[in-house]
């Protein structure tokens, strides 16, 4: 453990490494930098090698010469204040604990990705993407819990609120501030510029084995500055989007649970005895919930809330597809409902995509081709192909084969609701005009 306020070798090394990185990026020799910044080459070399303490003036002069935008001065402030680093951050929330079921294959894939990254000496970034409520967060947290011991320098976690109830997603600068404070950087020495915050974060995690869990990313921009860079580090990012703009990352698309795991989820919440006593109703409930963890969880909690509630009664309530989404809402928490989860994705669609979504919702075919969709919206196929790709990237439709798409599970019912609502609006407008 370090004493607060003590500048250690680690601090000096980190500043020196950042200075060297910046200098090499600019292609300037140490001698030339020394001349331009008015310091002796010997002194600068000592600072680069962690053998001498930088001053704020030296950092500012190097910033100016290297066009480093204040990064070195920001890092010098942090270095000189003596970041305590007395214990590594351990920010993982608890997750589902003993209630977590299934996902054996996905957990194995994530383990394999980490092994390969470790073998090749590269940091791992993996994007776990999938439909609303499919269990991305639960899976990411579960995996992080199982591998956290492999990251001795800390585990960081942030909810990026990409699809959360708040109108604006979390600002990456706010997340960086939280991460730096978790590493012991005194709030007073934090730079104000987002770019500098990111630079200080990079310097702090350079050479350290950390795991970063970034939950519910709305876009790639939110994520970039928060990724660790050192070999042996890893980041797991969850998103309802594919985050295609995030290049060079591993990907794990997540689908609904298997029917067996869907029933296992019901069992963990409702109890094995009750579920075992009504096996046919349990199977139907799993199916009616589209094997979607969020829906299963809500259904299961409804049953678990009363010892006399029968599975077959809830199954009968869910039998009518037109009212099923009404049944899959938590009575107390309006935000905790399947429809509310889908709304957050639907409301982020642009006009073209939401129009196509509604029109497809009103179409009775189980599967449509690109040409079918083009006929529905009366737009050129190339145009519609792109819109269908957008819907697929948002996980609101599933690509089942070349040029073929279909709605999966409860999303179909949700799309049908929108189609019916659009028809009603159109009818009332026609009536008003008549
Ligand atoms: N494998 C699982 N075992 C048990 N419960 C699960 C599992 N996966 C998800 N759940 C539960 O289902 C609900 C939805 O899961 P989760 O929040 O992980 O979905 P998500 O895909 O992250 O949703 P969103 O798109 O809104 O971020 C949660 O209550 C979660 O605890
Ligand atoms: Mg989530």
Based on DSSP secondary structure assignment, what is the total number of beta strands?
A: 8
CATH architecture of the largest domain: 3-Layer(aba) Sandwich
Rg (C-alpha, Å): 27 Å
The name of the CATH superfamily of the largest domain reads: P-loop containing nucleotide triphosphate hydrolases
Total domains: 4
The low-confidence runs, each spanning 5 or more residues with pLDDT under 50, are 1-5
| Helical fraction | 40-55%
What proportion of the residues form beta strands (DSSP E)? 5-15%
Structural class: alpha/beta
* CATH class placement of the largest domain: Alpha Beta
Number of helices: 21
Summarize model confidence as the mean pLDDT: 89
How are the strands of the largest sheet arranged? 2-3-4-1-5
The backbone outline, from C-alpha atoms, is elongated
Q: How can the largest sheet be summarized?
A: 5 strands, parallel
User: Which ligands are bound?
Assistant: adenosine-5'-triphosphate, magnesium ion
């Amino acid at each position: 453990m370090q004493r607060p306020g003590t500048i250690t070798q680690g601090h000096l090394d980190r500043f020196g490494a950042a200075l060297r990185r910046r200098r090499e990026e600019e292609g300037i020799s140490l001698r030339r930098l020394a001349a331009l910044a008015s310091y002796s080459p010997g002194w600068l070399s000592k600072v680069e090698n962690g053998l001498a303490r930088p001053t704020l003036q030296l950092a500012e002069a190097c910033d100016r010469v290297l066009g480093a935008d204040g990064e070195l001065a920001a890092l010098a402030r942090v270095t000189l204040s003596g970041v305590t680093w007395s214990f590594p951050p351990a920010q993982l929330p608890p997750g589902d604990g003993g209630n977590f079921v299934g996902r054996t294959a996905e957990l194995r894939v994530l383990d394999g990705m980490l092994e390969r990254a470790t073998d090749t000496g590269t940091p791992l970034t993996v994007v776990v993407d999938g439909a609303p409520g499919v269990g991305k967060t639960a899976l990411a947290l579960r995996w992080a819990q199982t591998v956290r011991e492999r990251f001795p320098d800390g585990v960081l976690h942030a909810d990026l609120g990409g699809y959360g109830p708040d109108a604006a997603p979390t600002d990456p600068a706010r997340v960086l501030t939280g991460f730096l404070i978790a590493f012991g950087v005194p709030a007073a020495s934090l730079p104000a510029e987002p770019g500098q915050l990111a630079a200080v974060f990079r310097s702090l995690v350079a050479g350290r084995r950390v795991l970063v869990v970034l939950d519910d990313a709305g876009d790639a921009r939110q994520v970039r500055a928060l990724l660790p860079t050192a070999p042996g580090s890893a980041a797991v990012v969850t998103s309802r989007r594919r985050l295609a703009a995030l290049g060079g990352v591993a990907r794990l698309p997540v689908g609904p649970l298997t029917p067996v795991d869907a029933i296992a989820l019901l069992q963990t919440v409702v109890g094995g005895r009750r579920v075992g006593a009504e096996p046919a109703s349990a199977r139907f409930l799993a199916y009616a919930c589209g094997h979607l963890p969020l829906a299963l969880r809500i259904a299961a909690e409804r049953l678990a809330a009363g010892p006399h509630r029968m599975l077959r009664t809830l199954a009968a309530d869910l039998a009518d597809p037109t009212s099923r989404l009404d049944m899959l809402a938590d009575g107390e928490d309006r935000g905790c409902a399947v429809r509310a989860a889908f709304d957050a994705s639907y409301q982020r669609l642009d006009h073209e995509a939401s129009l196509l979504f509604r029109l497809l919702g009103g179409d009775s075919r189980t599967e449509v081709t690109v040409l079918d969709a083009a006929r529905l919206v009366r737009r050129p196929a190339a145009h519609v192909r792109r819109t269908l790709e957008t819907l697929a990237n948002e996980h609101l439709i599933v690509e089942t084969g070349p040029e073929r798409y279909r709605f999966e599970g409860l999303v179909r019912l949700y799309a049908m609701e929108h189609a019916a609502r659009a028809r009603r609006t159109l009818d009332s407008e026609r009536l008003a005009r008549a």
